[in-house]
Every structure is written in C-alpha cells, then in structure tokens.
Amino acid sequence: MENKVIQNRLKALREVMKAEGIDYYMMPTADFHNSEYVNDYFKVREYFCNFSGSNGTLLVWQEGAGLWTDGRYFIQAERELQGTGVELFRMLDEGVPAMEDFLAQSMGQGQTLGFDGRVISVRAGRKLEEKLKDKGISFAYEQDLAEGIWKDRPAFPHGGIRVLPEELAGRSTEEKQKAVMEKAAGEGADSFLLTRLDDLMWLFNIRGCDVECNPVAMSYGFLTEDGAVLFIQRSVVDEPAEKYFAEKKITVMDYEGIVDYLKALPEGRRVLVDDRHCSYALYRALSEKQVLVEKQNPTELLKAVKNPVELANMEEIYLKDSVALTRFIYWIKTHIGKQEITEITAADYLEKLRREIPECIDLSFPSISAYGANAAMMHYEPTPENHAVLKPEGLYLIDSGGQYMGGTTDVTRTIALGPVSEEIKKHYTLVAAGMLQLANARWIYGCTGRNLDILARQPIWDIDLDYKCGTGHGVGYILNVHEGPQNMRWRFTEDMAEAVIEAGMDISNEPGIYVEGSHGIRIENIMVAENDVKNEYGQFMHFKTLTWVPIDLDAIDLDCMTEVQKKLLKEYQQKVYEKLSPYLTEEEAEWLKGETEMA
After folding, report:
1. Is 135 exposed, middle or buried (0-12, 13-18, 19+ CB in 10 A)?
2. Are 371 and 344 in contact (CB under 8 A)?
3. Is 230 buried (19+), middle (13-18) or exposed (0-12) by CB count in 10 A?
C-alpha cells in the first residue's frame, strides 16, 4: 500500500531542492550535538521517510531516496518504509555500499550535496569531502530544508535544568574542569570546545530535560585555563542555578550566541575539538582563525570511569531496580491467562513499580515490550494502534530501565509465558550461557571489548547464528543510557571508539538471538570492571555484576549447557535469591525461591 503522506512530503522536498540547486539532500538522526536520541524537533529524517529508529540517514535525490541503517533496525525499517518509495540500504551487509560510496558513484560532476551543517559531524562532513573531491561536488550546508515544509514542527526543546548536589556527583565541577584542561593541555591545546550534551551535564554537575528519557539540556561549553563559558538558553536558568553558576565562576551566555562567540575569539588559539561530535557548521566557523587540535573529547573517558560515590549509589539503585523487575516477572507469571495483558499494559505496570522507588525520576528509554515475533525487532516499541496481546505461551521480551537520583539502569529479560518449542529453549539457553560467560570473564589490563566479545557470542556462533549488534555499551550516571567510549563488539567500525576497559567502567552484557517472524531473545545485565590480582604478568581484572534478576528456568534446557555453564547459572540464581528475597513479600519470595532453585 502506498504511503501518500510520505510521498507528498518527499515531493515537496524535491521541489525545494530543485529551487535551491541541490541535487542530493542528506538527513541523519541527530541534533546540533550529534546526540543518539533527539528531541522531536530534530526528527526530520523520520518526518520524510517514516522510519523511527534511533540510527539512520536518509538521502533524497530527484529520482529516488534511500535509508541507511544498522542491523538492529532492518526488520523495523522494512515495515516502516513500506509504500514510501524509500529504499533500505542495510549497513555492513555484503554488497551494500556505504552512503559516501553511493554518493561517489551516483553524483554527477559539479553537482551539489545539501545538508544542515549543524546536524552533521565534522568527521562525517570531511569523509564526504574526501570521497567527493574528484567530482568537484559543492556542499550546501547552511540550510535546513525542512523549515518551509514541516508546518506543524514541534517547538525547539526548552526545558528546565537542575543542579546535581556534589554528594551525588562525587566530584565538584572545579575538579572535573581541572582534570579536563590537564588532558587538553597534554594534547597541546589551550582551549576546549565541548558540544556533547551528556558530557556537558557531567562536567558542570547539572541535568536537564530537553530529550525524552535523557536528562540533558541544549548547551555548549568553552573551556580555557582561565575559566568556563556555558552556552544555554537563559530562560531555563532559574535562581538556584544562576546562584550555582556564579559560585562556581561559570560564565553563562545565550545558546544561540555560540557561533558569534567562536568567530570573535582572538586569532591563533589552539582549540581542542572532537570531530565525532562537533558539528560541521561549528567546525567551519571555528577553523577560520583558530588552530584546531582534533583529539578525542577528554570528558568522555573521565565520565566513563565512575567515581566511588557514583559506584556506591549505582549498586544501591540497581538492587532496587532489580527488585522492581523481579516483582514484575512474578506479576506477569501469575496473571498471564487470567486477565488481558498487552505489550503496553505490561510495560505500564513495570513503569508503575519503578516509579514507586523514591529516587525514580523517569524511564531511561521508552520500554521495548515485545511479545512473540515482535521481539525479533531489537528496538520494537508498541503503540496504541499496533501492539500484541500476551498469551500463556511463547516468549515475552522486556528491555527497560529507569533514571534515578543515584543511577541510570538498563536491563532486559525474556520471559516464558507458557510452553515454548525445543528450538526456542535451545536458543534461550545459549543466550543465557553467553551472558554468564562474559559476566565471569577474567582478563589482563589492556583489553578492549573487542577482546572479550567472543565469550558472549561463542555459544551462539557454535550453532551458526549471530546477532547484528554489539554485546555491550557503557551506561551513564543519571545520564544517557548509552555511553562510551567503552563497548563490547567483535567488529571494528571506523567511526566507533574503542577503549581499554578501565576499573570503574560500567558496561552492559546483552547477547541475543533474533529470528524474524518467530521470536527474539535478549538477556541483559550491567556490570562494572574491577581490578583483581596484580603480579609479574600484569593487572588482572574481572566484572562485578550490578543486575540481580532471575534467568527464567522455564526456558532453560540444561542439556544444551556445559558443566561450567550450569555451575555459573546455579551460582547466579542463588545470588539473586539471597540479594532480593529480603525486599519481597512472603509470596513473592516463595515464588522466587522456586524460580532460582537448581538441583
């Protein structure tokens, strides 16, 4: 069936492109800070193609359109693009060109590529420059072509901010600024332009509400040895925040004034910028008179290694969050088939349990509540118009988390609601085995996630299956649920940072199996890296688990596990009962005892 709404929007866009002399127009999933999750104001790509995933870039030309996205979203994208006339390009699949290669092959000599330079990173922009230089391609990067077409566009984000008390932050903003500028100086810079929103919140010990589930505020920062300037919408700065900034000697300037400020800087400063996150437009403005030191943003690594206060608070919050999810599993196991439960009402019930925790602020992302075949879409989200009713059979997957004053949580459990096939049991068991193997890893300092990823995938690779995503990501502290630079993945990707795993880094552990049209399985815990024995061979390390939620023994086939894997499962289940039972009702604790007991 044709999607006339999207087709008409693309037609209007092509008319504007023609009038502006733009041959190809590119729209990524990003805001002015290259954020993963964005406010509705920035969902231009979704407006023009209907794809709602958190990663993807739309390219439009007069004769066609294409969407590039990664393996997490292939199934979802196929559905959402139906009837739009937009072709799906499956990133990293064999034979599928990267967008810059496609442009190099498709664009004619001297044509013009358009994009809003505020939502394209420096790295992406320069990659395009390099690929297209032989064709004499012009860049039109100072226009947002959606402006005249998207008549009912949501308002620009404009929420409030709150100051995070130092007893929660663990370090003052002065300490953080000093550490950041020491790193910048070590790279030969005397100034630092910071554009990444969660890093800005961490650095200045503030939190905002400009992006759903992400406690960030639209802002920029400029640091020198003499002090810091925070560019933020002045109307969101209330009296307590104003007082805080004055006490901390942070100069506050208007968010919209960043370009004029950068252009007015004395010539010849050595400014550190991170080309992954700084926008192409800001880079072009800054590079006119300044020397740019292009290095990794130092706040990213400093933020990733949680301090002792953060780690203590996280451990406490994860225990409370684990209690809430375990109570949810008890509820769904004891009510399925007795009352109607849908993907939406199930997620709502879990949210209710989380919000009963006193420290709860919000969810950390919209819950992925998926029954049966819907769970094969890694980032599926039910809607009032499109959702499933849960039945007392098959698997139900719930990937969810909370924002708390004390931590950000992310956890997935796949639950057997009744009978499941032997194949599904085997798949579930191997996913659980992979998760447990990684959780019990021991390694020597210097390893990255690429060295450890095989521990989670090995049981799945043994049956010639895989999952088209990473195994793990960092998690913020009262911040974004996805955080770097640490990650867990086997494939080296050019634009993906790869970091040595440091003591104090948290990381998710979430292997899975996804079979289109049948089922999806993911089991996710959060872990923290810790130092272990140090000897003549080096510093050995291990993970400490933060998530204590039972693995569903109803979906486990012990015959598919090695003796070592069975031992790991038994130990984990025992610890779940020991840690959670004191916080459950007598009935819930009795149920959990049965759920976690193994012969």
Report:
1. middle
2. no
3. buried
What separation in angstroms does the CA of 436 have from each of 331, 440, 511, 513, 519? 25, 6, 10, 15, 21
Q: Which residues lie closer than 8 Å to 221 by C-beta, 6 or more apart?
A: 192, 193, 194, 195, 200, 203, 204, 228, 229, 230, 231
**Best CA proximity match to 51, nearest among 213, 396, 385, 59:** 59
CA–CA gap between residue 596 and residue 326 (Å, rounded): 12
**What is the Cα–Cα distance from 66 to 24, expressed in whole angstroms?**
11
Q: Tens-digit pLDDT profile for the chain (599 aa)?
A: 678 999 999 999 999 999 999 999 999 989 999 888 899 999 999 999 999 988 899 999 999 999 999 888 898 899 899 999 999 999 989 999 999 999 999 999 999 999 999 999 999 999 999 999 999 999 999 889 999 899 999 999 999 999 999 999 999 999 999 999 999 999 999 999 999 999 999 999 999 999 999 999 999 999 999 999 999 999 999 999 999 999 999 999 999 999 999 999 999 899 999 998 999 999 988 988 999 999 999 999 999 999 999 999 999 999 999 999 999 999 999 999 999 999 999 999 999 999 999 999 999 999 999 999 999 988 888 988 889 999 999 999 999 999 999 999 999 999 999 999 999 999 999 999 999 999 999 999 999 999 999 999 999 999 999 998 899 999 999 999 999 899 999 987 666 668 999 999 999 999 999 999 999 999 999 999 999 999 999 999 999 999 999 999 999 999 999 999 999 999 999 999 999 999 999 999 999 999 999 87
Please determine whether the domains at 4-140 and 162-296 fall in the same fold group of CATH.
Answer: yes
Query: Cα-Cα-Cα-Cα dihedral of 14, 18, 22, 27, to 10°?
Result: -20
Of 477, 473, 476, 481, nearest in space to 364 by CA: 481
For residue 298, whether the previous peptide bond is cis, meaning omega lies within 30 degrees of 0, is no
Q: 4-140: what fold?
A: Creatine Amidinohydrolase; Chain A, domain 1 (3.40.350)
How far, in Å, CA of 53 to CA of 80, rounded? Answer: 10
Beta strands in 296-424 (DSSP E): 360-363, 368-371, 395-400, 402-404, 407-408, 411-416
The side-by-side arrangement of strands in the sheet containing 360-363 is 360-363, 402-404, 407-408
- CATH number for the domain formed by residue range(s) 162-296: 3.40.350.10
* CATH assignment of 305-596, among 3.40.50.300, 3.90.230.10, 3.40.1010.10, 2.60.40.10: 3.90.230.10
* Other Cβ atoms closer than 10 A to 580: 22
